[in-house]
Amino acid sequence: MLRVGIAGFGAIGSVVGRALDRGIAGFKLEAVAVRDAARMPPALASLATSVDAVAPEELARRCDVIVECAPAAAFCGIVTPAARAGRVVITVSAAALIENMQVIELAHAHGGRIILATGALLGFDAVRAAAKGTIHSVTMVTRKPPKSLFDAPYLAAHGIDITNLAAPLKVFSGTAREGARGFPANVNVAAALALAGIGPERTMLEIWADPSLSRNTHTIKVDADTVRFEMTIENVPTPEKPATGRVTALSVIAALESLTSPLRVGS
Fold first, then answer.
1. Candidate CATH numbers 3.90.170.10, 3.30.420.40, 3.40.50.300, 3.40.50.720; the one for domain 2-120+247-258
2. CA terminus-to-terminus distance, the chain
3. pLDDT surpasses 70 at 7
4. Strands annotated E in 130-226
5. Is 237 in a helix, a strand, or coil?
6. Is 136 a catalytic residue?
7. pLDDT at residue 265 above 80?
8. The whole model's pTM is what?
C-alpha cells in the first residue's frame, strides 16, 4: 500500500483526494499539505477518513508519493523536500518546473522521480516520439474565456484589459518560457508541451481571450522529419478555478494508477 500525500487541496487536489478516499487499489491517502492548516478546506473535511494536514517537509517524510497541485509559488517548497527524500512526485505544474529544473537533478541524486502528468493537453506520446528524431517546429494556440485569464501577471504588467470584450483578443505571442512566466496559472499545457518536445525557447505560443468560448481550447501543430500533425482539445473549466480544466485532475489520477497497474497504455 503506497502512502499518498497531496500538496494543495483545491480544484485538482480535492478531486484526487476524493478518489483516494473512495478507494484506489494499492494507494492510501496519508496526509495533505495546505497553505493554512488553521483554515481547513471544506473538501478535506468531507472525506470519509480523517486525514492530517501537515507541512511539506512532513509530507515528504511520511508519504511514498506526493501529488503536487499547489500554486506555482509553492512549487519548490513542496517538491524540493520530496525530491531530497527520494519520493515520487506527480505534478501538473510544468510552468513552475521549467523555472526550477534543478529539482530533477535533486530527485535523480536521491533516487526520486518527478512525473509530469498529462494535464489538459493531448498528444504528448506523439511529441515525445517525434523528439527522438528531428522536430522542426512546435506551435500552440490557446484560446480561453476572459474569466480564465483575469489574474495573469502579464496582463497587469502590460496594461491589457480583457473585461467586456466583444471580440477575440490576442493577449500574448512568444515562447513557451515567456508565456509560463506571464501566465503561470494558465499555460502549464504549453510548458509541458515544451518539455515533451523541443524545449521552452523554441516552442511558440499564442494566447487569446475569446468571449465566445465557454471552454479552454488548445491547438498544437508539430512539424518533424518523421511526422506532421495538428490536434485540438476543448476542456471544460472547473467552477472553482476557470483556468483549470476538469480533465486535469483526472489525468493526475490516471498517472497515479499507472504506478502500480500491470498494463500501461502509452509511452
1. 3.40.50.720
2. 25
3. yes
4. 135-144, 169-175, 203-209, 216-224
5. strand
6. no
7. yes
8. 0.91
